């Protein structure tokens, strides 16, 4: 217990210093602050326009009407925006650091390499996208006439947190492959394609082999689907158990791939 408290205090101090350094750099290089917001904001608006074009003449997707679909789009956008704000810009550099030997610097520090990589490039310029996503979710709730109470509201927040962890695990897992291969470009392209598809189609739209792929192998299909289902009363114990099982499985897989990757890593000489 004492060791756990010491680790938590140490990580907290490291996080504070990383935040100070990051915000200092952003004040010096202001383009690093504003550029992601304009780029991500433009992409966000394009996705909304695509959504409107695709679903303009579609009344329902499975059992979901337009209100539920709007909440879904907002939820997926929120997961992506949280990642962009907190960890994406740090994690995306993992393959390059492995390839050029820069990972040696992280291994030499008295803190978890993954912890530092996760938080060292937090980007507050992406935070407005979090607010935009929340606005879309609220708009979808009103458009769908959905009553939000303590029970379904708490369930939604719980599944949102669970899926945010799963989203993070997938980001780390895909980039950890660089420990074993010279390039993970194909996997990065696969990740982008899956995110783009599942941003537009909820998990309830997948059947057969597609459901196996997006619910089991590449679980992007459940990331925004389960939170919405918990909000609108479609969550079952079977679905809940499946969501937790997927999170635990990919958390374990990510941990194994990362820790064994660090042992496999030979530094700049490799």
What does this structure look like?
The protein has 270 residues and is mainly alpha-helical. Helices cover 74% and strands 0% of the residues. Helix 3 (66-86) packs antiparallel against helix 8 (127-143) and helix 9 (150-176) runs antiparallel to helix 12 (225-232). The mean pLDDT is 83. It is globular, with a radius of gyration of 20 Å. The chain has helices at 2-28, 31-55, 66-86, 88-91, 94-100, 103-107, 113-119, 127-143, 150-176, 185-200, 209-217, 225-232, 237-264. It starts with a helix and ends in a 6-residue tail after the last helix.
Summing up helix and strand content along with how strands pair, one would put the structural category as: mainly alpha
What percentage of the residues does DSSP assign to strands (E)? under 5%
Q: DSSP helix count?
A: 13
Largest sheet, strands/sense/barrel: none
| Average pLDDT score | 83
Helical fraction:
over 70%
Q: What is the CA-atom radius of gyration, in angstroms? A: 20 Å
User: How many strands?
Assistant: 0
Q: What is the distance, rounded to the nearest whole angstrom, between the alpha carbons of the first and last residues?
A: 38 Å
Note the overall shape: globular
Could you list the spans in which at least 5 consecutive residues all have pLDDT below 50?
none
Order of helices and strands: HHHHHHHHHHHHH
């Amino acid at each position: 217990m004492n060791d756990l408290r010491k680790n938590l205090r140490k990580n907290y101090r490291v996080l504070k210093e990383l935040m100070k350094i990051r915000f200092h750099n952003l004040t010096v290089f202001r383009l690093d602050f504003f550029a992601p917001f304009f780029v991500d904001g433009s992409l966000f608006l394009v996705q909304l326009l695509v959504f409107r074009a695709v679903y303009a003449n579609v009344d329902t997707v499975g059992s979901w009407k337009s209100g539920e679909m709007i909440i879904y789009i907002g939820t997926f956008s929120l997961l992506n925006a949280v990642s962009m704000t907190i960890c994406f810009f740090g994690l995306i550099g993992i393959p390059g650091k492995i390839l050029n030997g820069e990972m040696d610097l992280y291994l030499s520090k008295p803190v978890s390499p993954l912890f530092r990589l996760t938080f060292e490039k937090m980007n507050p310029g992406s935070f407005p996208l979090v607010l935009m996503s929340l606005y879309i979710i609220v708009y979808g709730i009103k458009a769908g006439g959905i009553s939000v109470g303590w029970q379904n509201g708490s369930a939604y927040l719980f599944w949102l947190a669970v899926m945010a962890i799963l989203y993070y695990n997938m980001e780390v897992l895909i980039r950890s492959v660089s420990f074993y291969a010279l390039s993970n470009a194909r996997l990065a392209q696969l990740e982008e394609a899956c995110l783009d598809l599942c941003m537009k189609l909820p998990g309830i739209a997948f059947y057969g082999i597609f459901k196996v792929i997006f619910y089991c192998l590449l679980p992007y299909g459940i990331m925004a689907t389960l939170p919405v289902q918990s909000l609108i009363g479609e969550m079952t114990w079977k679905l809940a158990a499946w969501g937790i099982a997927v999170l635990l499985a990919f958390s374990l897989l990510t941990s194994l791939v990362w820790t064994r990757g660090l042992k496999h890593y030979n530094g700049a000489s490799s």
